[in-house]
Amino acid sequence: MRIRTAGVIAAAGLLMLGVAACGGSGEPAATPSKDKGNGKLVLWTDPTRAPVLKPFAEAFGKENGVTVEVKEISENQQQTFITASQQGSGPDIMVGAHDWIGNMVQNGAIDPVQLTAEQKAAFHPNAIKAVTFNGQIYGAPYAMENVALIRNTDLVPTAPATIEDLIKTGKDLKAAKKVQEILCVPFGAAGDVYHTYPLFSAAGGSLFGTTASGDPDPSKVTVNTPESIAALEKMKALGEKGEGAIKTSIGNENGIPSFVQKKCAFLISGPWSMNDVKKAGFGYDISAVPGFAAGGQAKPFLGVQAFYVASKGKSKVLAQEFVANYVTNKDVAMALYKADPRPAALTAAADAVKSLDPNAEKFVQAGANGIPMPAIPAMGAIWGPMANAEVAVVKGGDAKTAAEAATKAITAEINK
Amino acid sequence: MTTEVTGAGSARSPHPGPSGQAPDQRSRGGRRGGAEQVRRTRELSTGFIVSRIAVLGVVAALLIYALPPLIQTEAWTALGVVGVVTALVAYLYLTPRHIPAKYLVPGTIFLFAFAIVPIVLTFVTAFTNFGDGHRGTKEEAVRAIETSSVTQVPGSPEYYLTIAERDGELVFLLVDPDTKAVQAGTADGLSPLTGAEVSLTGKVLSAAGYTVIPTAQAAERDAEIAAFSVPTPGGAVKATGLSRAFEGKADKSYDAACDCVTSPSGGRWVADEVEGYFVDAEGKHLDQGWKVDVGFANFTKALTDPTISGHFLNVLIWNFVFALSAVATTFALGMIVALALHSPRVRGTKFYRIILILPYAMPGFAMLLIWRDMFNTDFGLISKLFGVHDWLGTPTTARLGLIVINLWMGFPYMFLVITGALQAVPRELTDAARIDGASAWAGFRRVTLPLVLVALTPLLISSFGFNFNNFNNIKLVTNGGPYAIDNSTVGATDLLISYTYRVAGFDSGVADFGFAAAISVFIFAIVATVSTVAFWRSRAQEEVYS
C-alpha cells in the first residue's frame, strides 16, 4: 500500500550527503546524520556462496565488533537487490557477477570502491578490467570463470589444435561407435550465446565495437558486420544441416550429463562442471577452446564474481572496509578459494593454490584470450535476439537474414 | 438490524463473559429489552472475547509494525490510510452495531489490498517510464551521478586512517604511507599533527588532544563517518572503510542554475524532463535517469511502434486459440473421464481418481521442464515414440505440443470439478430421459451437459482467463519460440504475456515496468471484456435451464 517510495529514498539518501560534499565546493560536510549506524553488516549472496562466505563474514564481524548477517537470495538476485535497495531494505554488501554492474550503476544501487594502486596490481588484470565501468572500479573481484574445452582423454589423448581437428576426431569416434555426438556444447532449443561465444569469436564474430577508452560501445552493434555474418556462416556449417556439432537438442540440461555418460568426447563448459566430470570415472583434461585453422583465436567470455558496496546500505563505511580492505587480503582470498574452488582473482592466491588444484589453473590459462563479458546495460539486449539468430543458422537458415533481424531487434531494444 | 441476529442457542452459552465487561455491554443493549440482554450474554462467550481480542490484536500489531518505516520515510499518505483503516476496524469490532459490516469489512479490505490497489498501481505505472535506469527521483539520480564520478585526486596519497574524536567532534587522523607524516582532518580542513604514536601498520595509537575511537565503536558510528569529509584544496578526504582514506574529487556536479550536470573537463548534460535523463549536446545521456510521467507514450508505443504492433494481431489470434483450446480440450477430457467414473458399473473408482489427480498434484514447473525434454529432437521420449522430428522447432507442432502439455496438466482439475457437478445432477432427470426413449448421448447432451454447464460456466471463464495469461507453460517449454529467421522479437508460440515479458526487457534483466504495465492494461481490458460477455451469456443460459 505504500504509494510513496520516494520517501524511502530520501531517507536513505541522507547517508550519502557527505559524498556529494566531495564536489570540490570546499564546504564542510553536511550536518552528520542523526541516524547512527546500527553496527550491523548485511551481506546478500546466492545459496551456493552463502555458506562459504558466512565464516569470513563472521570473522570480520568479530574483528570489528559488529554483527554480520549473511542472507541467501535464491532467485533473480540482481533485480531483487535493485528493488530492495530502492525501497531501503537492501543489504550493505552484494555478491554477484560483474556483468550486473552497468544496470546496478544506472539504478544508483552501488558505489565505486577505491582500491589502491597496490591492491589493483595484486589482481589478475582481466578481473580488474571486468569490474571497471566508465573508468571506475565498482567492486572487489574474487573469482573468475570462463568456459574451456574439456575432453575425455581415454578417447582423445591430445588436445585438438583447431576446431577442424576437433570435428574430425569427433566424427571418427562417432563412426567407430565410440560416441554418439561430435561435441557437447550447451545450446538448446533456445540457443546459448555464452557457451558458443568461443566459436563465434574464433570465426571473427563480435557483438559491439569499442569506445575510445576501449569499453564496449552500445551505439556500435557489430552483429551484422561482414565478419560476424561470416562467423554465423561457420556456425551454420557446424550446425544441424552441416557437421552436426552444434545441436538444439543438446542444452544446459543435458550437455554435461551427455559428456559424463561418454556420449561425446568433448565438452565446452566452465569450472562448475568439474564436480560432475570428476565423478565420471574417466581421464579428462582441460584446454582452451581452439580456433579455426584459418582464423583467429577463440575468445571465451570472462565472468568475474565480485563484492559490491550498496549505495543505500545502512553501514556503508563497514561495507567499504569489508570490500576494499578485507576480501582483497591474500589470506582471505586463499581461504575463500579453499571453500569454493573457483579460480581466484587475486594472483597471489591463484598462485598459492596452483599445486592444489591444477584444473583451476587450466581454466585460467584457457581464458587467457578471453574478453570480460560486457557490463553495459545494453548487453541485456543482446542475449535474446543473438540466441535466436544462432538457432536460425544452426538449423540451416541464412546467416545474413538472421544477423540483420537480430541487429534490428537489438538496436530497437537499446534505443527504446 | 442488530436485533435480528439473536441465536437460538444464545441462552445456552456455557461461558458468560467476564463480569467486568458484561454490565457495560448490558447497559448499552438494555434499552432494547430482555431478549437483547440474553443475546449479549451469548456474544460475550470466551470464544467471542478471544476472537475479538485476536482480531484487534492483529490489526494493532500491523499498525505498530507499519508505523516506524512509514514515519521514517515520511510516507504520510500511506500512514494516513493505515491509520484510518485501523481506526475503522477497531471501531467496528468494539461497538455492538454494524453487524453486517463486521463480516464484510475484512473481505473488503483484502479486496482493496490485493486486487484493487495493484490494478490501480499498474494503471498509474503505465503512465510513467518506471524501469531500470528510471527507478528513482531526480535528486537521487543526481546523487548517484556525483557519487559515481568521485575519483582519486591525481598524485594524492592513499592515507592510513584512524578515527578519533576531539571535543565530541569526529576527526580523521591520516598517515601518509610513504612519509609517515600525520595530519588531523576535521570539517574545517587538514592540519599537521606532531607527536603522534604510529603503529607499524599505520594506525595512530595515541595523539595528544585526541581520543582514538576503537574500531568497534567506530563501526557503530557508520553513518556519521560516511557523511564526514575533510575539505582539501583539490577535493575532499573521504574514508574507504575504517582503515584507509583517499582524497577524492567529484568529476561531475549538478548545477541548479542551468538544471544541468557539468564536469570540469567541459562536459555538460542538461536535464530532459520528458526522457528523464541528463543529455549532452550530441544527444547522449548519462546512465542514471529518473522517473517521469510520460502520458500515453507507453500506450502509443504499443499501438504504433511497428516492431511491436506489427505482431500484435498474430500474437492475439494465437493467444485466443491457445486459451480456447486449453479450456475446450481439458473440459472435454475431464468430462469424458468424469462420466466414465461416474457410472455405477465402474469398480475401483477411488484408485482411478488418485491416479488422475497426480498430474494436478505435481509441481507445474518441474512437469513443464520434463515435458520440454520429452519433446527433445534427439533424446526425447516423443521423438522416440513418434519418430524424430523437431517438435518444438516448427510452429505447428510447437503449438500442438503446448496444447497437449496443457491438456495433461489441466484436465485433472476439470475432472475434479465436473465430478462434483455430476453429483448434483438429479438422477431422476437422466432416468426420466432414458425412460422417454432418449439415447445415452441425447440424454447427456440435452440433460446432463446443460446442467453441468450452468454450474461450471464461471469456472470455465476463469480457466479461460488463466490460460490467456498462462506464462509458465510458454516460458518454460518453448520460451516463445520457434522464431522466424527474419524476426527476433516475437515467436510462434508467444502469448501476449510472454511477449510483453520479452518486449519490456524482463528477459534481458533491464526491465521497463512502465511499458509492461501499459500492455498489462491492454491484456486486462481484453480478458475483462471476454469474461463480461461470457458471464452475460451464461446468466441468460441459467435462466433457461434453472
From TrEMBL, chain A:
Residue intervals passing through the bilayer: none
Residues of the signal peptide: 1-21
The UniProt record lists the keyword Ribosomal protein: no
Keyword Transport set for record: yes
Any GO BP: maltose transport
GO MF assignments: carbohydrate transmembrane transporter activity; maltose binding
One Gene Ontology CC term in the entry: ATP-binding cassette (ABC) transporter complex, substrate-binding subunit-containing
UniProt keywords, alphabetically: Signal, Sugar transport, Transport
Pfam families in UniProt: SBP_bac_8 (PF13416)
InterPro entries recorded: Maltose/Cyclodextrin-bd, SBP
PANTHER family (UniProt xref): MALTOSE-BINDING PERIPLASMIC PROTEIN, MALTOSE_MALTODEXTRIN-BINDING PERIPLASMIC PROTEIN
Family: Belongs to the bacterial solute-binding protein 1 family.
Record's protein name: Sugar ABC transporter substrate-binding protein
Annotated organism of origin: Catellatospora citrea
Automatic annotation (TrEMBL), chain B:
Highest taxon of the lineage: Bacteria
Membrane topology designation: Multi-pass membrane protein
Function according to Swiss-Prot or TrEMBL: Part of the ABC transporter complex MalEFGK involved in maltose/maltodextrin import. Probably responsible for the translocation of the substrate across the membrane.
Organism lineage string: Bacteria, Bacillati, Actinomycetota, Actinomycetes, Micromonosporales
Any single GO BP term: maltodextrin transmembrane transport
Family: Belongs to the binding-protein-dependent transport system permease family. MalFG subfamily.
Any GO molecular function: ABC-type maltose transporter activity
Compartments, record wording: Cell membrane
Region annotation (Disordered) ranges: 1-39
One family name in Pfam for this protein: BPD_transp_1
Cellular component, GO, one term: maltose transport complex
Domain ABC transmembrane type-1 stretches: 316-534
Sorted UniProt keywords: Cell membrane, Membrane, Sugar transport, Transmembrane, Transmembrane helix, Transport
UniProt protein name: Maltose/maltodextrin transport system permease protein
Main location: membrane
Bilayer-crossing regions: 49-67, 73-94, 103-127, 316-339, 351-371, 400-426, 447-466, 513-536
